[in-house]
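Bench notes, afternoon.
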Amino acid sequence: MRNVLRSLRQLRPLIQRQDCVLIGSVNVAEPPCHFGKSCHIHSSACGGVDHAETNFFKNHLFTTTTRALSIGAAKLANRESNRAGPLVEYERRIAGGELVEGDACQVDTLTELQRLHDELVENVDTCQLDRNSEKPVRSGWLWSRLLSHPSYSPVKGLYLYGGVGTGKTMLMDLFFNQLPSNWRKKRIHFHDFMLNVHSLLQKHKGLSDPLDVVAGEISDDAILLCLDEFMVTDVADALVLNRLFRHLFNKGIILVATSNRAPDNLYEGGLQRDLFLPFIASLKERCVVHEIGSSIDYRKMTSGKQGFYLVGRDLSALLKQNFQQLIGEGTATPQEVEVVMGRTLHVPLGANGCAYFSFEELCDRPLGAADYFGLFKKFHTLALEGIPIFGLHNKSAAHRFVTLVDVIYENKARLMCTADGSPQDLFEKIVTISEAKNMAPRTSSRSRKNDDSSLCVDNELGFAKDRTISRLTEINSREYLEHHAAMLSEKKERVDQNVLEA
């Protein structure tokens, strides 16, 4: 045993000096050595070990080290090739020419989204994002009473806000689509989300805390909730949001939202806003707030033409002619479309996925987002006759039209219309409170009768008009219409294939 220990002591200096010996053996520049001059005098350092044993250990150590380096390099290369996330995909699309060269603001936003992506991947088990993993049984009021403390997610969400056409929706979709398909995730427009919430509240009416039950159903379906176009205009929504998201955040929900408004400007000037303010505080606590500061409207970079947007009421005959061409040999007839909570929407004329309305029938009646979402579940194209110039006299219709355009855009539907002016002209008389204050004040030489009586001062409409103008521009662009035609063609091919297989 002593002889064995003595031999091991003699071998220890050689093993400790493997770095210096091996570097020299592969003709690589030798790094600084921290063992003193003895490491360079191989013969004296080896003591009683003969050259055969030295060569054996050198070769063995070289092989082992080379193999380790190869494995490390392979792991690194594999990690690089398996990189995923919104920023990686964005760079790939730019390199492939699918996207124009991004501006610094978009890249900055994607860096935030990539950070969130990586945090979610690292905490997938803790956040219980995987649908296939075991989830704790969480049944109604009993569970909520047993848990006396909130179970906030360790990962904060992200609230993105900025001007129109800065690519918020595209960036969030890029983020959402890079996440694993088996995750508990949901991407939905804010209008649609609130419609679902109110429908669920109606379903659980009579319970002691229906919002807690609704929050439980939402969180069971999706832990990561992506809401596009977060915009609070309705007092009913404002009063619900604070308590709803308190329950959702307590259940571990991670929120990613896009909006035109900073959190502090949400529901500005709204009724009973003091009851809404705690939600803003909660939102800022549970989300990283990030502004997209791009001054480029990417929607207006598309090659918009006159397309299906016809200026002039005398062109209604041309609109009907275009509508007939789209439906082909079909015959347009009145139809009923089912919307939420058993309600139906009357469609004056419809055939082959195309619906025909006058503006008054669709926007000058007490209809809302639920009716419009129901419409586009059945129809992919809307012909709308007679869009007016908006002002004080038709403010309610303007609100509905803004919602309608949002739903058209969200559903990637097609719009044919006649209007009294260009998209910019339609909203020329709509101003925010601050814009109204900056207008020339009345003087003795400028009497009240010279004021524009149709001017509409409305903060929500004033902020929404730029988004609506931008979306109308994109909906009318060649690229959008080509994409819509391709989508219909692909859908038809799938239907035909299913018929053949049947």
